[in-house]
Structures are given as C-alpha cells and as structure tokens.
Amino acid sequence: MAVLGIETSCDETAAALVTADGRILADIVRSQIEAHRPYGGVVPEIAARAHIEYLDGLIARALAEAEADWGDIEAVAATAGPGLIGGLMVGLTTGKALAAALAKPFIAVNHLEAHALSARLGGKVAFPYLLLLVSGGHCQLLIVEDVNSYTRLGTTVDDAVGEAFDKAAKLLGLGYPGGPAIERAARTGDPGAHDLPRPMRGRAGCHFSFSGLKTALVHEVRRQSEGGDLPANRVAGIAASFQAAVGDVLLDRTANAFTEMRARYDYARTLVVAGGVAANETLRARLLGLCEAEGFSLTVPPARLCTDNGVMIAWAGVERLSRGLTDSLEAPPRARWPLDPEAAKAPGAGARE
Ligand code: KG4
Ligand code: ZN
Question: Rounded distance, CA 13 to CA 302, Å?
C-alpha cells in the first residue's frame, strides 16, 4: 500500500508513490523548463496548460513503475498551495477525483510543509529541527516542531534567493534556470573580484533581503560592460562574487537562527536545508562549515528531493495520514499558505507565502 503524491504548484509536473515506511515505489518528474526558457521565467498560463497535458500520463507511468494498481493506493495527496493558482487547480482536482473514485482519504498538502518534511524520508531526522528553505519562490528559516507545527523565524522581505539567482543569471546572459548556471560560471571566478553588498548582514533576527544585491549587480554589470557587451572573462568573477555575497547572507541569518534554537531547546541541534538552491555545492559546503563551527549537524536531502518533486508530496501525505490529518474534497487551492500564520501576519515580512 502506498500514498500517491501529485505536485503541480509551479513548473514541474510530478507524481510519485511512497509507502508508509518511506520506500519510494515511483518518482516521476516532468520539468517544463524548455517551455518557459524563451521567457526567462515561469509563465503561469503555460504552466497550467502543461500540467493538464502531462499529469494523467505521469500518474499512469507512476503506477506502472511501481508495478501497482489502483487498489494499492491507500490515500491521495496533492499540493494545494502555495503556488500558481492555475497549476494548483489541475493537481488538486485530479487528486480529489481519484480519491473520490477510489473511496480513499484525500490530503491537501502545503508545498512548504512537503519541503520541510522531505528530510525525514528514511526516518533519520527527529523533531524539532531548524529548516533553511531556499527555493525559487521562498527563502525562510523555520523551526519544524512537528507535522503541522512550525515557528517561522524569518523570511525574505523582497525576492526569494532562487529568484535572485535567476535574475542574476539573466543579467549575465547565462540563461534560465539561473542557479545552476551561476554555480557553473562561478567555478572559474574569484569570489572577491567585485564588491557587492550583503543585505541584512549583521542585523538582529532572521529575515532576508536580496533586492539591494540585485540592484548593485545591475550597476556592476553596467560598469563592467562599458557600454558594450560584458566581456566573457568578467562573467565568472561577477557570478562568483554574487554567489559569495548570497552565501555570506545565508550564513549570517542561519547563525542567528542557531542562537534562537539554542535559546528554545537544549537538545535540538539539526539544520535541514531544502529547496532548489540547496543543490548548490558551494553554498552547501559553506553551511556545513558553519554547522561544524556551531555544533549543529547538517542534513540536506538528495538533490532530486530538493527541487520540486512528487515524492515529497506523497511523503507529506504519509506523515499527515499517520496523524489522522486528512482533508475534505472541499479543500481550496491557495496561492498563499504560510506555515506559521501568526508570523506571516507580522509587519515587514512574508509577502510571498
Ligand atoms: O525548489 P525549486 O525546484 O522550485 C521552487 O519551489 O521554487 O527551486 C528552483 C530554484 C530556481 O530559482 C533555481 O535557479 C534554484 O532553485 N537552483 C539553484 C541551483 N539549482 C537550482 N540555485 C543555486 N544553485 C544551484 N545549483
Ligand atoms: Zn518548491
């Protein structure tokens, strides 16, 4: 028996089957990167149409890969938010229809909770733990106390960190998605080559900001290109300097979150990093260095579980089902859906949950 997970909140269409003890029976992700590439970012209308086109076939493939049939599905979990509303409606409606037809429980999954819980697949990480969620849509530090229980320590007041990578790559002519392209370009560049700002560094608390860094980058690129095209040999240095600035900000904010964690718990010393940006090896190495210096252990889910996927949705379904947290077929799609609603109400942060 397994939970079927369906993900359609952004530009990946995904379906997976995961058992109650965390075995992945099927894991199918269809990226729409090619469809969005000409526009340099995700186009909601194109994404929604692509989800409609791909999803049914993906679910059929997931069942085939698992050598399962409909009778093996014990519950259906689908992402209900936060995300692009058109895509969410596709996955949610499909999930509800399947649950109704199979007469099995339905679970409306919060995409952020799925990222948060993905590190527990395989049973290694115990509650509570600190989560740094760094993706194209989010940049947050949260304490994961339990399934359905989160304290948000900080979030971005403007851009998400993956979004900053994507915009920087566009400026440097490196294409989309920007994160992997910047990481590649940065390998041959000097991280100290260009003096870029580190927004929020040294400030109290755990909020993030990246718009000032982006603006500084625009000016730097303009300065370096001297009215013409940016010389290729400068791209690596700028990419490396940008990545270094982002790393400094992430480390500074995470160190403050460690202090907060120590004040609240005398035993919980685990940092989990999740979301697409967690695939960045340089940033991972720097976070590992910070953890070692501060007496925390670091857990990063495997790269394919860091970027959007169906396995994490199915696993969140497993975790919620085991606590009796199922949903009615009335569950709405939600463009915004903060994990910590109280923190999201606070002024000055959280515009994008
Ligand atoms: O979690 P994800 O797949 O989708 C969202 O929920 O947003 O994250 C995608 C984001 C993109 O902004 C992409 O540029 C970034 O993660 N990303 C990276 C790397 N790989 C993906 N950023 C930095 N370095 C990478 N290696
Ligand atoms: Zn995501």
Answer: 19
